[in-house]
Design goal:
Elements (H helix, E strand, L loop, with lengths): L1 H24 L6 E7 L5 E9 L2 H6 L11 E11 L2 E2 L8 E6 L5 E8 L7 E2 L4 E8 L11 E2 L2 H4 L2
Parallel strand pairs: 2-3
Antiparallel strand pairs: 1-2, 1-9, 3-8, 4-7, 5-6, 5-8
């Protein structure tokens, strides 16, 4: 009986380990960009953002990451301006989503998206960019602007 229990526990361990290894090995390689943001139209802050600029990277996003460094996040890029949909599947921490126009100005904010929540988060406006940052890290407002090379990113 004890041998059977050990075998079952070992099987569960191997399944969990293989899923973790699979997720890590399938993570796309993200380039990074440095951006600054004027918090509440003052106090510039530097951010390191991973760039999600194709379908594979946008689909994977921040899934399966156990943590995120301070002053970092993800920048989602599309060449066309459309309504955007997100969810928090396999995302281990709460996020704030900032929906940006072509100029990098915040036109919509979704605060405190819950970790692992698969509820659809849908923008109300057509956007080209979305920035995900750890929830509550930056008290950004509508009208605040990210300073990146947005024109270059859309090429």
């Amino acid at each position: 009986m004890l041998k059977k229990l050990k075998t079952i526990l070992l099987g569960f361990f191997l399944i969990i380990l293989s899923n973790t290894v699979f997720a890590e090995n399938n993570r796309p390689l993200f380039k990074q960009i440095m951006c600054s943001i004027n918090v509440n139209k003052k106090n510039p802050q530097e951010l390191s953002l991973d760039i999600a600029d194709n379908q594979q990277k946008r689909s994977y996003g921040l899934m399966n990451r156990k943590d995120m460094k301070p002053n970092s996040g993800m920048l989602f890029i599309w060449k066309d301006s459309q309504i955007r949909n997100f969810w928090m599947k396999n995302t281990h921490f709460n996020l704030d989503l900032f929906f940006l126009n072509k100029q990098g100005e915040i036109i919509e904010i979704y605060k405190n998206a819950k970790a692992f929540d698969e509820t659809n988060i849908k923008s109300q406006n057509k956007v080209n960019f979305v920035v995900e940052l750890k929830s509550g890290e930056y008290p950004l407002l509508i009208g605040d602007k990210f300073n990146c090379l947005f024109k270059e990113l859309l090429k």
